[in-house]
Amino acid sequence: MAPLPAVLVVDDHDGFRAFARVMLEASGFTVTEAASGAEAAATARIIRPQLVLLDIQLPDFDGFEVARRLAGQEPRPVIVLTSTREATDYGGRITSSPAAGFLPKDQLTGAALHGFLAAGRAGRSA
Questions:
Q1: What angle do CA 111, 122, 49 make, to 5 degrees?
Q2: Cα 43 from Cα 32, distance rounded (Å)
Q3: How far is CA 30 from the centre of its chain?
Q4: What would the pLDDT profile of 45-77 be if each residue is shown by its tens digit?
Q5: How many Cα atoms within 13 Å fall on the side-chain side of residue 123?
Q6: Rounded to whole angstroms, how far apart are CA atoms 16 and 38?
Q7: What is the DSSP string of 35-99?
Q8: How does pLDDT run across 79-92, given as a tens digit for each residue?
Q9: Tens digits of per-residue pLDDT, 2-39?
Q10: Which residues sit opposite 32 in a β-bridge?
Q11: Helix, strand or coil, per DSSP, at residue 39
Q12: Phi first, then psi: what are they for 99, rounded to 5°?
């Protein structure tokens, strides 16, 4: 039996992390949480998640800086940026980041994250 995909949920709002944990565990993920960019980088080095769900607005570093730091780790996780704001609010910063994409918080589903993981694996083997 294959291990459950590990996802790191990075968000400074406890309620969102709790919601994401319940929903993602029900969708077959193993979930770890972090409340800041510094905590995310340290936690990712330990657990080596396959996927990081990363809020753009964090109390210490913004999600773009955290994504840059995580992209330098091996193995490199699939990074999905998230926000309550629209992607267009960030201009070209999302597409120029090392993130695999952007997912509005109100559209978060396990299926969407499984899709990002599948696309990330396909991109690495090509």
A1: 60
A2: 8
A3: 13
A4: 999 999 999 999 999 999 999 999 999 988 899
A5: 12
A6: 18
A7: SSHHHHHHHHHHH--SEEEEES--SSS-HHHHHHHHHTSSSPPEEEEEESS-GGGGGGGTTTSS-
A8: 999 999 999 999 99
A9: 678 999 999 999 999 999 999 999 999 999 999 999 99
A10: 8
A11: helix
A12: -70, 150
Query: Among residues 87, 79, 122, 77, which one has the least CA distance to residue 107?
Result: 87
The one-letter amino acid at 115: G
Lookup result for tokens 């609010």: 89
Identify whether 59 is preceded by a cis peptide bond (ω within 30 of 0).
no
d(CA 120, CA 25): 20
Which helix or strand (DSSP H or E) is residue 112 part of?
A: helix 110-125
Q: What are phi and psi of 36, to 5 degrees?
A: -150, 170
pLDDT at position 125 is 38
For residues 100 and 116, is the Cβ–Cβ distance under 8 A?
Answer: yes
